[in-house]
Design brief:
alpha+beta; 7 strands; globular
Length: 165
């Protein structure tokens, strides 16, 4: 399933990309987004290339039928990798949900606009479960869309904090 998402930021892309290349941003962001656990699995920064791979655990946020609740549990653990070309202000966001045959990949691009910038994300979600895979893809897409506003809000808060530092 493919869809577009736009996250609005109150600062120009030059400031936002600096934040996106800072490993401490991710820890602060996920603390504010109520991650139950946050572990950096890998991180690299070479020239204009930045990449961070994290293991995150969150309370379950998608509706799960009662019969599946025992199997799924109350939390979701995922592996997220953010990779940025800091000069081009383009990147890839890859999310693997642990224990689920679901993969979400977003191609990102920061674009300046009046009053700040926007992160334009082109998502591609796939689920390899026969018969219900498309429904699961839609659930994941809806969850990503719903969480986008919180992600942008927290990023804007952290950008404001950096301006005062």
């Amino acid at each position: 399933m493919k869809f577009q998402q736009s996250l609005q930021y109150n600062k120009p892309s030059d400031e936002v990309i600096q934040l996106f290349g800072d490993p401490s941003y991710f820890e602060r962001k996920f603390q504010k987004l109520n991650a139950l656990a946050f572990d950096v699995l890998d991180q690299s920064s070479t020239g204009d290339q930045f990449s961070i791979k994290m293991k995150l655990t969150f309370p379950l946020s998608v509706p799960v039928p009662g019969f599946a609740k025992k199997v799924v549990g109350d939390t979701t653990t995922l592996i997220e990798q953010d990779s940025w070309d800091l000069a081009a202000k383009t990147g890839t966001l890859s999310v693997d949900i642990q224990g689920a045959p679901v993969k979400a990949v977003g191609q990102m691009k920061l674009v300046d606009q009046a009053g700040g910038c926007v992160n334009e994300i082109s998502w591609d979600i796939s689920c390899s479960v026969p018969l219900i895979g498309k429904k699961i893809e839609k659930l994941i897409a809806d969850d990503i869309q719903a969480k986008g506003a919180d992600d942008a809000r927290v990023t804007n808060e952290l950008l404001a904090d950096n301006a005062g530092a």
